Target: Peptidoglycan hydrolase
Amino acid sequence: MSRMDFIKTIVPYAQRIQKKYKILTSFVIAQACLESNYGQSGLAQKGENLFGIKGSYKGQSITMRTHEYEKGKKVSIDAPFRKYLSWYESLEDLAQLYHNGVSWDKNKYRPIIGETNYILACKKVQECGYCTDPNYEAKLMNIIEKYELYKYDKVGNKRLVKAADIKEESQVYIVKKGDTLSAIARRYKTTVQSLVKLNNIKNPDLIRVGQKLRLK
Model:
């Protein structure tokens, strides 16, 4: 199966997810492409699992070797992953994860739901801590734009994507609890000095939750 064949196969599944769960089609397809290597990963082939969601699903799981990032370093581990009956079941389980969150934070992924701009959806999933890969957002964006996946972001005759006119919004970061200026600078490949200058910050050690920071 070619990459385009994979994309065409899951487009109708992803559009059903968008209509039912309000999660953008292009964003979900890009995640599936990236995390399953366009449906060719062992997990996608043996467990119908496109997103690397760990644990068990209706009592079914499969153990696979995977990569994680610990303190910025890539490591390999063996882990149990959910096993599904179909790719659509995998897509729907991801959508339910976004809606239901995790045991310690039911609203962890809420910012993704209802987002109609793929740039912001990619940005938000990174900020929500969905993936340990620091370049996850950029990789999703590259896939969406390379294969023009945004053309599938429609409900009826209404196009949802409005990327160009609000792209600037993706260059603003909202400070969260536990953030430091140095950590934000590392995450977005900039410097503390640059953030201080852009945002007229008098004391780099004092930033508040909810504060909006320009990144560029």
